[in-house]
Amino acid sequence: MPLLQRLNRVFNKKGGIKSLISLLPVISVLLVLAGVCLLFVLPMDGQFRRTYISENALLPGQAHTYFKDSEENILRAYREEVKILKDVAESERAVVIEKWINDMGYKAAIHNWSFTHQDDVKSGSNVYGVLHAPRGDTTESMILCAPWINGDNEFNEGGVALAIALARYFTRWSVWSKDIIIVIPSDTRFGLSKWVADYHYTSMSASSGAIQGGVVLDFPGSYEHFSRIEVKYTGYNGQLPNLDLINTAVLISAHMHLNIVIHGVAGTDHEYKNRATTLLRGIIDQSSSGLYKQGYGNEPFSGWRVDAITLKAVMDTQSMPFTQIEYGKLVESVLRSINNLQEHFHQSFFFYLMISPWQFVSIGTYLPAAMLVGASFTIKGIYLWLKATESASGKSIVESAHAFGFFVAILLACAALFTVAGSAPSSVLLPIYGLISGISVILPFFLNKIVERKSESYITKLRSYSLIYAGLVLTTLSTLNFSLALILGLLFFPLAHLVKPSKEVSEVSIKTSVASLVSNAAIILTSPWTGILLYFRFIVCPPSSKETVFPRLITSISVPKLDDFVNGMMWNWRALGVWSFVPILFLVWLPLWISAFVATLIQESKVIEVESVKNGKAGEEKVAVNSEGVEDGKKSDESAKD
Amino acid sequence: MDEQKRLLNVCIAAVLLRAAISIGFPAIHGILDQRVELTTASTSFKQLREGLHLYRMGVSPFDGGVYHQAPLLILIFQALDGFYGSIAPNSLAINVVYCVLDVLCAWFLVQISTSESFSGRKKLDSWNIAAIYLFNPLVIATNLARSTAVFSNVLILAAIRFATYSQFLSVLFLAAASHLNIYAVYLVPPFMILWSPTKAFSNCAVTVLLYAAAFGGLSLLGYFMSGGSFQYIKSTYGTLLFFSDLVPNMGLWWYFFMEIFDSFRPLFTYIFQLYSLIYVLPITIRLQKEPLFAIVSILGVTLISKAYPELGDLGIYISLLSLYQHIFTNVRYALLSALVIIHALVLAPNFYHLWIYLGSGNANFFYAISLVYAIGVTLILTDTLRAILRIEFDGGEEPQKVVVQI
Predict the structure, then answer these.
(1) Average per-residue pLDDT for chain B
(2) Per the domain annotation, does A26 fall within a domain?
(3) Residues A105 and A120 in one domain
(4) A344 touching B, CB under 8 A?
(5) A419: Cβ–Cβ under 8 A, 6 or more apart, which residues?
(6) How confident is the model at residue B177 (pLDDT cuts 50, 70, 90)?
(7) Interchain proximity B354–A479, CB inside 8 Å
(8) Chain B residue with minimal CA distance to A302?
(9) What CA–CA distance (Å, rounded) separates B42 from B180?
């Protein structure tokens, strides 16, 4: 202890804390770098683990599957019938399917759904049926789902036919201890989401117990063969199903010698490059799941304690060695495993990043990446706070409270803009977005008028609050949606480190003008509206080769498509409860950006002018008080009057 | 004059804010009442209404494990119901009562700050003190959740307010507060110093007797309300003492008692209760010259060590600390502890959501964050205690050396 005390004293004597504080900005940048580097360390040997079945009851692949070639004729017949239904109206084909599954012994029903927002209505008909388990008590169930339209907007002919053929085949078995619910929703987006919500919220005409797990069948087109299975597992808002379910599917496919991949990476998992690609694609998928369009079918089950995966059959015309019957066997075997569950999926991981179908990184290993990035904002915020409170005016509690109030006002203004955007009719949403982006660009100039008379510490405090807020949100978010937190953290990086208040770059030199240029560029590039446009231009509608030249890049943006994109985002927030994008855009990104923008607008000359005027007014007393360095300016003004 | 006007404006704004939220989002009361962070078995308004209903139906409210709060509360709300006809959490009567209680709290805080124990010290303007209380999100949320802790808080503040003016009233207020919230008993030792600064034995004895009589008398209400049975003691104080209502909260108890083998339960119940009690005398003895700060610190200790803590306790603790502006320059970890607590407050509902609704997290998540919360409160507690002792060491002088604050 004396040694520690001594060290502490020496540390304090040498001004250790002061120099530590001055190092904080560097530490903050290093943390972000460390977070990014950690991401690339994860796929290295020794950092990840091999998957294993944690729940012993699952017994994947242990049951013999009897969905055999003898079923193929029935399957083909259903395919023919489903093909005919392709161009039939949704409500009519729902009636046909209802009759089929009703005849098999299921309790079938049609679920008509609609979402209304102002002038915009989305509606359709799902059809579903419940097979009461011969060995169950209707308290638990499993989902066998095949949407009419799959995640890539293709007609899911094979999927629907397989689901129905399997449903028919399942009635012949007496092994089921959980009810089987077959769902044929209109789409993977609104129809399925509404079905899942209504299943849990309302009393439906055919119902069963708690859904323990589900498999979504995605076998598009009229092919009877496929090249490989791709497992889609990412849910909305970064929710993931239990790792045991994915492992079960992977293990069973391996038993059946099927080729199974995740995130479309087909190469071997012995190569670092493939593992890293899978990891990065996984992060992108998780962070952008449910951004503006439909998913693959497993997403709507997330958030309801239902673990579901989509088994997507990928058709690569060069080589299609596997048959649709093998696909059916895989589904049968996965459902048999879910059927074996004694209690809800809980054993294995809910927080993981896959780096190959057989390898994963668990939360303890990867979470530091997002936490480091999040912490860098908090640390920069603390640094700015300490810097602000060094000066005489910065010590005033009133000023701190005022700056905080100012930040809250920015937040409230953004919330108001959010309400406007949320209640705008779909037909005028794009113009409204244009208007909102216009307002948010003009707003900082108005706010600047309010704060330009304030001292430097005021602005620093405002920035400090906004960065601490960012750190808080990112830390919280990283436990809910790791990938989104990480990507947002990298996105906000320029706002924390590259944006410089103009008064800090008063001297005209090459260094300062470069800094000011970078700062302005950062403000323009990190605007949420620039973000939306860039995402749309390069990801949603990638430019064709002709359009890559600069002016064409912008002029060739298709307005109807942009309208669809923006409306899709709003709809997913409104109807599917995807809070990862629109609320974050308005309540986190926008206020952060506005605070940074306000900070850059302040001119030093004005601040000096105001300071000198103030000093003159308050007279010598104020100077005396300031030299004491504790009293705030405002109070001293009052005391001077007295 | 200007000061008074500002104070009035703050109070009016606070009342308007509460009314606006209540009218704009009538469902918010129920939502907040369901939050385990804001209400517990000993303060939930929903359970109070259930108890009142039972009582009206002629059933003892203390039967059946629904109601664990003080008997007096049922009588208060029965009277209110009889007077106004509804005690729905968004009804006018309840709105008015809770607004008045909050404004009373703020007023008592302002009164305390102008009392002689703070004379000659640097302190915040009274409207600042009122605003720190009235616009504290924790206080607002507790108020909107209609937590009955608001009643015991106002009584504790009233007891402090009257301690030096009218001993008699102060004793009664503290007895009533202890009746509503048994942990207020811990405040008796520091109050003794306030009540009888000369430490005359006869004076002390009289106040203790008066306190005991008032406390006992109020508690006897339950005897009559349950039709002449002492079973209510088990249901009210027993639940607190033996921690029989195992619902998660922001405290340190529930996880332990959820995991523990039943045979160890009594032992650990004693240990946990003893732990929250053990600080009372040392703090009182050490802070003899600052009995008010001893009260504040004991509130701070119980805020994390009691069986059913809630976030409103932190709100009142922070408000009481705001009276001590002269120690602000001497605290070291203001920013650090604030950040720790804010992170805990944001992460707690998040982890609860992961655990209860999404099922991807588990109880460890929520408990971990309540530990972080406890660390944050402990930081404030130790930091302020150190600061006040340092000032005492310096003979009440402002510190010469500027403390590095993080």
Answers:
(1) 90
(2) no
(3) yes
(4) yes
(5) none
(6) very high
(7) yes
(8) B358
(9) 9
Q: Which residues of chain B neighbour A397 with C-beta distances below 8 Å?
A: 124, 128, 328
Nearest-angstrom CA–CA distance, B273 and B258? 16
Q: What percent of chain A is modeled with pLDDT above 90?
A: 63
- Domain containing A542: what range? 365-609
Same domain for A292 and A404, yes or no, is no
> CB-based contact (8 Å) between A363 and chain B?
no
pLDDT top residue among B163 and B395: B163
Side chain identity, residue A575: A
Query: Do the chains contact at B351 and A479, CB–CB below 8 Å?
Result: yes
Q: Does a structural domain hold residue A253?
A: yes
Tell whether ipTM is more than 0.95. no
How far apart CA A239 and CA A255 sit, in angstroms, is 28
Quick check: helix, strand or coil at residue A322? strand
The C-alpha angle A76, A81, A86, rounded to 5 degrees, equals: 120
**B234-B236-B237-B238 Cα dihedral, nearest 10 degrees:** 30
To the nearest whole Å, the CA of B98 is away from the closest chain A CA by: 25
Interface test with A, best of B360, B365, B398 (most A CBs within 10 A): B360
**A418 shares a domain with A402:** yes
Same domain, A183 and A88: yes
Record: contact B359-A305, CB cut-off 8 A? yes
Total structural domains within chain A = 3
Separation between Cα atoms, residue A168 and residue A589, nearest integer Å = 51
Query: A378 and A249 share a domain?
Result: no
Last residue of one domain, picked from the residues A312, A330, A357: A357
Q: Mark whether A605 and A617 lie in a shared domain.
A: no
Amino acid identity for residue A559 in this structure = V
Q: Is A385 on the interface with B (CB under 8 A)?
A: yes
Q: Is residue A15 part of a domain?
A: no
CB contact under 8 A, A475 and B347: yes
Interface test with B, best of A346, A378, A397, A579 (most B CBs within 10 A): A397
CA distances for B301 relative to A469, B186, B307, B326, B377, angstroms: 29, 10, 12, 22, 8
Q: In a mutagenesis test of the B interface, which of A350, A400, A588 is the best target, namely the one with the most B β-carbons within 10 Å?
A: A350
| HEC profile of A35-55 | HHHHHHHCCCCCCCEECCCCC
Contact A305 B358 (CB under 8 A): yes
Quickly state the pLDDT bin for A519 (edges 50, 70, 90).
confident
Residues A125 and A248 in one domain: yes
Q: What is the CATH number of the domain that holds A91?
A: 3.40.630.10
CB-closest option in B128, B328, B358 to A303: B358
Same structural domain for residues A282 and A142? yes
Distance in Å, alpha carbon of B358 to nearest chain A alpha carbon? 5
Task: Determine whether the interchain pair A378/B358 forms a contact, defined as Cβ–Cβ distance below 8 Å.
Answer: no
Among chain B residues, the shortest Cα distance to A630 is held by B329
Alpha carbons A455 and A452: distance in angstroms, whole number: 8
- What average pLDDT score do residues A214-234 get? 94
Nearest of B278, B313, B290 to residue B387 by alpha carbon: B290
The DSSP letter of residue A240 is: -
CB atoms near residue B20 (< 10 Å): 10
- Nearest-angstrom CA–CA distance, A114 and A121: 7
Decide if A382 and B124 are in contact by the 8 Å CB cutoff: no
User: Where are the extended beta strands (E) located within B85-183?
Assistant: none
B360: which chain A residues are within 8 Å (Cβ-Cβ)? 239-240, 350-351
* Inter-chain CB proximity A472 and B343 less than 8 Å: yes
Closest in A17, A472, A479 to B342, CB measured = A472
Round to whole Å and give the CA distance between A530 and B100: 49
A619: pLDDT strictly greater than 60 = no
The answer to whether residue A24 sits within a structural domain is: no
Contact A480 B124 (CB under 8 A): no
